[in-house]
């Protein structure tokens, strides 16, 4: 068997953040979960996407209003600094999602990776923005990520920190197999992500149970196919009446769920993850260098949407 | 809701084919299952990979011996012709996997698509060949696909036939997300495949239950992520003492298992599949043209194996 390289890996699921909740109230909850994760042996904690505020893309408003109320112009800032201080004091790193407004005024759906000294070592800006950019007054709520955010300007990334090679994604990215492949091709061992997934699909009457099903099968298959640990943190439950799924999980490279949240509230999962578990797959069934055939994958980068069948030789 | 375009879609799982079994014995079983599928409303039947013989890549032998015993130099040939005749008589098409030796002597692991008039309308030669090409005398059996077969010389394909756009894959192809993406980017509505999956992993002591788990999560996630029906037919059970998993399934574009084999023997599954079910996903969460970002997928075609992290700008 491969060498065991164990890492305490935590997911901190969050219950609802309501419109009336302040950043200070939210950070207090994050600090409590960071401390619990530390006490249970975690070296790193994964927090949700847009963790500091309610999932505001559900509300129609002007960009300027959204940016004033829900975006962070600096990170850390005074509200979040105590979390960074705890990280350094306890020696526990974290992943945190928030709405970023850059110095040049560009809005991104962003995640950062903070190491065990409290330093920001990586930043990822969401590439697969779901939803729409127009007002849908007949829908029960909006999904305005394509309005409020710009598509990430940098590639999918992997950072070598805290004893592991860690890739970052955000929410809808997890449904796209390309996301995971871009990270495993950069030698990721762990993929971390936060999400806000409404229980109701506003586009068609999708059975509600499918939302959780799609979340889980996608994470399980992607962890297996890319030989990585996957750690996914939900913000969930009913935010001012708008419900989102829970189901935060830590998935092993075997595709098995090693830990799963059982509430729709603040809840910490910790797994003592053997990073070597992915090696057995990387060296055999998914030895990419021996088995992948990029010469047969051309359409993945040549086409955006679906098109006609490729030409073929006559059948011999 | 989308228009309902129903299609009777069948999977014909096969129990073992032993070394002593003749092609004629096997074709008799295939014909029985084709007739059953027809009686239950199927317009098309999916048979396994290498359906006409035992899974011979488990045995070390010279290529010339393998080709003489286990390959087909013509298709249809006298042994298989009765299956083609039944297809035309009943008006039921099929997918069939077999070992192909071309007129120029090139060996492929091949699948054909035969329409309801008994005509071969498509041929696919396996791209993701698993296993090894050297003799491993200490292993309990061999997995010599890389020795006995050449990598497919044509792209992943989709054929417009029998009222649907049908993509073909074979066995190990199903574990690679690129396979499915190549087909959905050619507008596939159904992906059909056969497989022979040994229950024991000869490369490392993998828990046996994971073989079925990986098979199912990969099919479910891939069907969902690509908005296709997936129909997968096993050859399974113990062939001369070498056991392979069953678990033949028809998976909906929802990622749900619509039908699953419950034996390790010859067994027919039929689903009246609504091809329109995939459209709801194609038009929303997986509207590729709106959501895919090929400019961020470059490594998928540029790299074969994993490498270093991509360069990034300084964190601002």
From TrEMBL, chains A, B:
It holds the Pfam family CN_hydrolase. InterPro entries: Aliph_Amidase/BUP, C-N_Hydrolase, C-N_Hydrolase_sf. CDD domains: DCase (cd07569). The keyword Hydrolase applies. Keywords: Hydrolase. The keyword Hydrolase applies. Its EC number is 3.5.-.-, 3.5.1.77. It is an enzyme of class 3 (hydrolase). GO terms for molecular function: N-carbamoyl-D-amino acid hydrolase activity. This is Carbon-nitrogen hydrolase. It comes from Bordetella ansorpii.
């Amino acid at each position: 068997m491969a060498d065991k390289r164990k890492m305490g890996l935590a997911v901190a699921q969050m219950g609802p953040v309501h419109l009336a909740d302040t950043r200070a109230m939210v950070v207090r909850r994050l600090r409590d979960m960071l401390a619990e994760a530390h006490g249970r042996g975690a070296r790193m904690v994964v927090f949700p996407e847009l963790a500091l505020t309610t999932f505001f893309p559900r509300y129609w408003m002007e960009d300027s209003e959204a940016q004033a109320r829900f975006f962070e112009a600096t990170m850390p800032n005074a509200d979040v600094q105590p979390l960074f201080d705890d990280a350094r004091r306890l020696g526990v790193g974290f992943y945190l999602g928030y709405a970023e407004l850059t110095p040049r005024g560009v809005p991104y759906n962003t995640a950062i990776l903070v190491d065990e000294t409290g330093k920001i070592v990586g930043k990822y800006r969401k590439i697969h923005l779901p939803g729409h950019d127009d007002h849908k007054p007949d829908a029960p709520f909006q999904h305005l990520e394509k309005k409020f955010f710009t598509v990430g300007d940098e590639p999918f990334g992997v950072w070598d920190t805290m004893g592991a090679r860690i890739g970052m994604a955000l929410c809808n990215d997890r449904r796209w197999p390309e996301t995971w492949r871009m990270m495993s091709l950069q030698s990721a061992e762990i993929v971390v992500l936060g999400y806000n997934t409404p229980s109701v699909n506003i586009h068609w009457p999708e059975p509600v149970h499918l939302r959780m099903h799609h979340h889980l099968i996608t994470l399980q298959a992607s962890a297996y196919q890319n030989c990585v640990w996957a750690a996914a943190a939900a913000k969930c439950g009913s935010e001012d009446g708008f419900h989102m799924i829970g189901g935060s999980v830590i998935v092993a490279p075997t595709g098995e769920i090693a830990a799963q949240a059982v509430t729709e509230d603040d809840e910490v999962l910790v797994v003592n993850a053997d990073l070597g578990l992915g090696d057995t797959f990387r060296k055999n069934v998914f030895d990419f260098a021996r088995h992948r055939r990029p010469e047969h994958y051309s359409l993945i980068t040549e086409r955006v949407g679906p098109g006609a069948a490729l030409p073929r030789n006559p059948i011999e």
